[in-house]
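Checklist before submission:
- one chain only
- standard amino acids only
- sequence pasted in full

Submission:
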Amino acid sequence: MSREPATSPYDALLLLSFGGPEGPDEVVPFLENVTRGRGIPKERLKEVGKHYYLFGGVSPINEQNRALLDALREDFAEHGVELPVYWGNRNWTPYLTDTLREMIADGRRRIAVLATSAYASYSGCRQYRENLADALATLAGEGLEVPRVDKLRHYFNHPGFVRPMAESVLASLAGLPQDLRAGAHLAFTTHSIPVAAADTSGPAEEHGEGGAYVTQHLDTARQIVEAVRERTGVEHPWRLVYQSRSGAPHIPWLEPDICDHLETLHGEGVPAVVMVPIGFVSDHMEVLYDLDTEATAKAAELNLPVRRSSTVGADPRFAAAVRDLVLERAATERGRAPERCALGALGPSHDLCPAGCCPARTPRPAAAGADSPYA
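Returned file contents:
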């Protein structure tokens, strides 16, 4: 009697990410994709893109995604998981629609999707689901049989996401002068978003001050603080702070900004700071520029010793966590009740985003949710 594969009903995994330019000539076209529909002049985009030019016009995110793809394929092969892994981006090549077209040509009909965003928010979850719906609509318009896509649950509290970051914090603390370590402050950073978007992040029952976005980040930060305390015996003071604000000045966004926070800590006499970018999966441009360049320069101006810990990137433990998420969801789709790994107080997140989850200002179709037009 044949045995059903552990990955059934899925026949592929899609890594879905943001994308980034890989040369100076690609910076403005990339930013035009990111800001499409906002009417931002090209000259302003050139100004916005200056941090890319500091790095030769190359965002590290694509190369980091290639490394993650390699790590996933290696982990799957080592554990007998026969599931091909594809990659598509929201804003740059390889574009999501092109990748899905390739997957259809390869005969893929049931696709698990891993987004490179661990938390609930419009830009980190629903917008990716809207991207999927847009791509599927385009392919259906071409007369293709569109596959079913299922987005894997949020993994902000999965051990394979939290523990590598906790170890990186320990390494960053060890890099500080010994007489400064015990008093070091941990500044957990994530992307600032409009307060209104934060307050309505997650399912409707989780809406409120900060919504699921802030709640989930706080839970992750607490797990890292506790892991550091267990290893060192020191419970470091900490705060969740924000970076990479890009909105109009009159619209309230989550605060405080990391640079403002560094000034506050300096004024309070804090001896050193470790910046912990828990809001990001890899060390891409918003980490390299906003933290390693701007925030580090601010710390130097203040004569405040600072270190920046690493994101999970292509850590083998994160690749193993993705395998765990795929097998967990596959078992659920087959009617099983698998164990779901999650640290902290919030427990494992939902598989299927409910209607009204992380709503947009203008409602648009979104795939891979309870309100998906592609069931």
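Reviewer check: The chain is about 40% helix and 10% strand.
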